[in-house]
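Run log, item B.
One chain of 339 residues. Sequence copied directly from the ordering sheet:
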Amino acid sequence: MALGTGNRAIGLEIDSGKARAVELTGKKNDYKLAGLGSIELPSDAVKEGMIQQPRIVGNALKELWSGAGLKDRQVVLGISNQGVLVRHIAVPNVPADKLGNVIRFQAQEHLPIPLEGVVLDYLVLGETAENEEGAAQLEILLVGARRDMLDKFLEALEAADLEPLDIDVSSMAQINLLPPKALQMTVALVNVANGLSSIVISAHGKPRLARLGMVKILDLAESLDCSLEDILLPHILKQEGAADKLRQWGSNLAGEIRSSLTYFQDQHSANRVEGVLLSGRGALLGGLTAKLEEYLALPVRIFNPLEEYSPARRRLLNSDFEAAEYVVSAGLALRGLEG
């Protein structure tokens, strides 16, 4: 997957009802938080991670850049929706200059849509077991993104006078932020956003499973008859019947996570998931971590990317707790500092 270079990078996440951006400066192992911000989007502008109204989103991004004082016009854009297909495949261990052609040749077997309608990318995870003929194999993370879906994101960036430095699977960007201890473990990264949730399992810093979840904050907001902006207000969560609705929503989310963990364990019996890191706006819902711990029988912690940032820049947020909402954007920005 292509990487950008430079000493400043902005990660951009476009969610249902909200766009978020984080600007970092420095290098991958020595970076600082230079800025961040978010802006509300009209309810019809983005649906389940897919842009429906590019011009409206582009105008909102212009306002976000102005209001947050973001300097760079190039962004690392994160995309995670049903138009992004992620597969783990094995291919022959061929020379690097031939690998792209081999992957493209095999990709059609693993993707349900014609290749002419897809933008392909891949990441070499390492060597895997030999095949039946005894030949060495490479383990590849294959990503296919629908062109028509990507075009709407690019149209929104153009409307905002922004350029894509790189485009990445937003759910996997969280791995960039894992602290050294977590990079030696097998952990589940669960991002609960407005429009979709995602589950990525990282084993020693490599993505071994990536899934979308259909439980989202928008569902909870609709059941509580409130807007996405108001979902975290104390009086909303304390209204009559709210506790039962929140409990049911949390159980549905836990069920999706547990299903993914079970599938992973069936495929990778040697690697047991040791904990869950929770991010996204859903992480800010009180009591959710305890509910998930009880259901999953695993440690669940809120993922706080500000732990590695300069304390002087933490004033950009009301609290470290709120940093969980910016994990994806921060991970994308950190990717932009790689070279």
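Observations after the first pass:
- The helical segments are 54-68, 96-110, 147-159, 217-223, 234-237, 242-267, 288-296, 327-336.
- The domain at 86-145 is CATH 3.30.1490.300 (Dna Ligase; domain 1).
Flagged for discussion on Thursday.
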